[in-house]
């Protein structure tokens, strides 16, 4: 177990290093600079280079890369080009809160409703329950969440006036974006759970449990769900990462000061340090989530024991 | 194993609570939370009605460090919490603000500003002439300046050398005679200089305060010292600002609004929903929404000093041929572009210098010049045939535009006009924002859609662009001695009437040589609540100005 863990951590560091390197060089291929190029176009080539030189952008790429990596190892993500005077780490710290709150709520809501829908559909296979649950699932996958968000905003926010139309001012501000974000999760989880449940229900051990006289609730809870959840956990990783790190469109629609729009905007304005900082943050978050999920398998299914496999 | 589930759930709930604590809802005492809090009276409808103004910003706030900042959003905020020597009124005329008056020397080169009595910073310190000198030097010094340094160094004597790090502060011609007197010497007569002092980069700074704050200057609302009609009481780059009336402001009796909220809303449709819900007092419209609101009494438009135009590249075939250039310049109707395609309040352009830009004696440049380039299909056809004959072949033509919706629509419009009117196929080449600029700087284009937004109210900002440009490719490789002479003569001319004559002639030459094809003067459509009055917007620089705003 310990050995496995160490190997995984080394792998993670290598992965992050490769991502940082690739992003750095790809990003520098973007046309333009972090400055107002329209104004700079009035300068001669030399004057322009002089201006870039103030920010160290005139140096050869390899030098810029070494310098960046040196700072990175010391935990310094640098200063944003666009939000002048702001450290990238401060920017991320300020923006991650709202995105993470929405993400966690959307995951919790999506999982709860999705699993319940999936179980109901599987146990009432080929009945009205099944069909309605699957209609919800298909709609959830096929309606883009920004359309749903815009509809929510217009009807619930503006017409009914129950919840705030937008802004980030109190807990109620987070309700509509959470619902909009969770739609996709509900749909995915419901379909996955249903299919897995159907398969599990046909296993011999279900028959055994029934024959033993285990009460139906216990059968579902102890035998069916736990076995059906294993594949569901697998898709948990990407879902958690994409939700917790924010959704650009949902954040923009509801005026949430989150991290999703920061990422897209930083690419638009060539804010090099912010692009790098956020990419690394996203990647680190992703690989860590994957690690946690791999460890979770063992909790849910004792058959998958990491240490037992190799030693 | 069973026990792990409740444990996990409580762990999740705990982390959710930690998150909630850490996600800085801006609510608290704000009036817009009233829906949930219920019992709280709504500030904007209680006894003191009309004291709150709610506006939106269309993106995050990048930088409130006045000497460095370059973007319209930061300008919109700073213009209301700070004040320069002069402040622009609703007609874009500079009115005395921190300054009481100025004197200009005979040759138009030396300005002596006298400051008002009783002007104060928000901490009670007096605003002195030295605060201006300190700030202006800071805005030019290579270590502290941003990309707007040129708006000082282009005019103030000794500024350019100081900005390049070649000389020290003493060689810059800004002199503090005494606490109330500031003397500035200029490189050449600049009739719009007083207007420039209303610009953000020219605002004063309190030296003691700025030094004390160091690197934290401008990062929080406590990190700025104010001298304008309002002060900031909340500032979050991603959420917006709250401003409150400045009790130390010299003209505070004229400020009727107690509190202004400016909130970041990036999505135009959301802003419109908020406006409909009564949470915003003014909203800019997307062109798709214009038709639904056109007849509303709350609908209005405003134009900006920003002209879109086609740049023909004389360095590339076939635009080294004047007839071809002229043919493509005359073969489209800008009126169709603005009315049908853009439909956002923009005005068709028949000249280069933006509409309403100052000329002389209260008349605008456009009023003095009139329309220079009017679409003329018949003539365009003639010129095209002639040009093709001279070339000996039908040229293939690429049109370069940026890849945003408006630019692409403009490109498609031109393509169809050329097809319809001249019977030629023009290829559209679209590139990302910076890609287009790079391509044009490298001279690797035949014709491209370009634009120029003015920072000050004078036609020289346009006409100087083609006067021996630092990057000739970007300006179409146009070399005309007569043109350069006219613009240079205008720059050193102290007599405003003679000066404007030269500038008018220069624009005519540029257009008639077929160097640029005017497209439109950029405009905006907006809705504003009928009980809100006095929001002054300017077509350039720092806008809006909320000093005179009222909410009835």
Descriptive account of the structure:
Chain A: Belongs to the binding-protein-dependent transport system permease family. Chain A: It comes from Cytobacillus eiseniae. The complex is a heterodimer of chains A (311) and B (552). Chain A is mostly helical. Chain A is built from 14 helices and no strands. Chain A folds into 2 domains: 72 residues, no CATH class; 216 residues, MetI-like (MetI-like fold), CATH 1.10.3720.10. Chain A is globular, with a radius of gyration of 24 Å. The mean pLDDT of chain A is 86. Among the domains of chain B are: 143 residues, Dipeptide-binding Protein, Domain 1 (Dipeptide-binding Protein, domain 1, Alpha-Beta Complex), CATH 3.90.76.10; 221 residues, Dipeptide-binding Protein, domain 3, CATH 3.10.105. Chain B starts with a helix and ends with a strand. Chain B is globular and about 75 Å long. In chain B, strands 11, 12, 13, 16, 17, 18 and 19 form a 7-stranded mixed sheet that branches. Chain B is 32% helix and 20% strand. Chain B is α+β, with helices and mostly antiparallel strands. In chain B, a hairpin with a 3-residue loop joins strand 8 and strand 9. Chain B has 19 helices and 21 strands. At the A-B interface, helix 2, helix 3, helix 5, helix 7 and helix 12 of A face helix 1, helix 9, helix 16 and strand 18 of B.
List keywords for this structure.
heterodimer, A: 311 residues, mainly alpha, MetI-like fold, 2 domains, B: 552 residues, alpha+beta, Dipeptide-binding Protein, domain 1, Dipeptide-binding Protein, domain 3, 7-stranded mixed beta sheet, 4-stranded mixed beta sheet, 21 strands, 32% helix
């Amino acid at each position: 177990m310990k050995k496995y863990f160490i190997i995984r951590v080394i792998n993670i560091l290598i992965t992050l290093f490769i991502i940082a390197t690739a992003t750095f060089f790809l990003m520098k291929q973007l046309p333009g600079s972090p400055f107002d190029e329209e104004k700079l176009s009035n300068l001669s080539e030399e004057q322009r280079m002089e201006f870039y030189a103030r920010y160290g952008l005139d140096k050869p790429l390899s030098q810029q890369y070494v310098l960046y990596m040196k700072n990175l190892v010391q935990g310094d993500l640098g200063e944003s080009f666009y939000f002048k005077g702001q450290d990238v780490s401060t920017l991320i710290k300020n923006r991650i809160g709202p995105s993470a709150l929405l993400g966690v709520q959307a995951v919790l809501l999506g999982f709860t409703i999705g699993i319940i829908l999936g179980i109901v559909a599987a146990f009432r296979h080929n009945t009205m329950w099944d069909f309605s649950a699957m209609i919800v699932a298909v709609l959830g996958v096929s309606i883009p969440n920004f359309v749903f968000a815009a509809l929510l905003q217009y009807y619930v926010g503006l017409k009914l006036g129950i919840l705030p139309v937008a802004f980030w001012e109190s807990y109620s501000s987070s309700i509509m974006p959470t619902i909009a974000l969770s739609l996709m999760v509900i749909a995915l989880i419901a379909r996955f759970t249903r299919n897995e449940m159907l398969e599990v229900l046909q296993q011999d051990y279900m028959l055994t449990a029934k024959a033993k006289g285990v009460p139906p609730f216990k059968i579902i809870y102890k035998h069916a769900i736990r076995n059906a959840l294993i594949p569901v956990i697998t898709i948990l990783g990407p879902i958690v990462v994409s939700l917790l790190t924010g959704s650009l469109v949902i954040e923009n629609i509801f005026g949430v000061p989150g991290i999703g729009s920061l990422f897209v905007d930083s690419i638009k304005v060539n804010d090099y340090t912010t692009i790098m900082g956020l990419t690394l943050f996203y990647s680190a978050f992703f690989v860590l989530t994957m690690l946690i999920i791999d460890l979770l398998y063992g909790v849910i299914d004792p058959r998958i024991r990491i240490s037992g496999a190799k030693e | 194993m069973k026990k792990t589930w409740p444990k996990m759930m409580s762990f999740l709930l705990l982390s959710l609570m930690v998150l909630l604590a850490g996600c800085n809802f801006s609510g608290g005492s704000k009036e817009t939370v009233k829906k949930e809090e219920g019992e709280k009276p709504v500030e904007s409808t209680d006894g003191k009605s009309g004291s709150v103004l709610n506006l939106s910003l269309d993106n995050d706030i990048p930088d409130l460090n006045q000497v460095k900042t370059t973007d319209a959003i930061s300008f919109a905020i700073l213009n209301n919490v700070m004040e320069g020597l002069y402040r622009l009124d609703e007609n874009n005329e500079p009115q005395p603000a921190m300054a009481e008056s100025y004197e200009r020397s005979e040759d138009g080169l030396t300005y002596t500003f006298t400051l008002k009595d009783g002007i104060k910073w928000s901490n009670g310190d007096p605003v002195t002439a030295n605060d201006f000198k300190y700030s202006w030097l800071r805005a030019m010094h290579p270590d502290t300046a941003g990309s707007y340094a040129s708006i000082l160094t282009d005019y103030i004597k000794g500024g350019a050398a100081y900005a390049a790090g070649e000389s020290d502060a003493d060689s810059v011609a800004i002199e503090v005679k005494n606490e109330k007197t500031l003397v500035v010497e200029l490189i050449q007569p600049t009739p719009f200089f007083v207007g420039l002092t209303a610009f953000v980069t020219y605002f004063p700074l309190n030296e003691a305060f700025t030094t004390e704050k160091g690197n934290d200057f401008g990062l929080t609302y406590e990190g700025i010292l104010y001298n304008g009609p309002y002060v900031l009481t909340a500032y979050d780059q991603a959420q917006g600002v709250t401003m409150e009336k400045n009790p130390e402001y010299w003209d505070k009796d004229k400020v009727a609004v107690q509190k202004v909220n400016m909130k970041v809303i990036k999505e135009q449709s959301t802003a419109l929903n908020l406006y409909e819900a009564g949470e915003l007092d003014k909203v800019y419209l997307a062109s798709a929404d214009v038709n639904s609101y056109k007849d509303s009494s709350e609908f209005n438009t405003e134009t900006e000093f920003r002209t879109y135009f086609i740049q023909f590249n004389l360095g590339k075939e076939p635009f080294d041929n004047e007839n071809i250039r002229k043919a493509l310049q005359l073969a489209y109707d800008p009126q169709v572009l603005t009315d049908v395609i853009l439909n956002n309040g923009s005005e068709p352009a028949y000249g280069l210098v933006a509409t309403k830009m100052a000329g002389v004696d209260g008349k605008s440049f456009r009023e003095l010049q009139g329309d220079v380039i009017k679409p003329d299909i018949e003539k365009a056809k003639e010129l095209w045939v002639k040009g093709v004959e001279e070339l000996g072949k039908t040229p293939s033509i690429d049109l370069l535009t940026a890849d945003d919706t408006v630019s692409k629509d403009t490109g498609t419009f031109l393509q169809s006009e050329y097809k319809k009117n001249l019977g030629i196929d023009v290829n559209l080449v679209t590139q990302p924002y910076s890609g287009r600029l790079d391509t044009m700087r490298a001279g690797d284009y035949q014709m491209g859609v370009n634009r120029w937004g003015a920072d000050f109210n004078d036609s020289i900002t346009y006409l100087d662009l083609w006067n021996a440009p630092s990057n000739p490719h970007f300006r179409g490789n146009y070399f005309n001695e007569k043109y350069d002479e006219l613009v240079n003569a205008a720059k050193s001319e102290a007599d405003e009437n003679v000066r404007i004559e030269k500038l008018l002639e220069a624009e005519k030459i540029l257009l008639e040589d077929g160097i640029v094809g005017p497209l439109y003067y950029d405009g905006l459509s907006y809705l504003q609540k009928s009980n809100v009055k006095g929001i002054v917007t300017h077509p350039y620089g720092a806008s809006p100005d909320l000093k005179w705003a009222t909410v009835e």
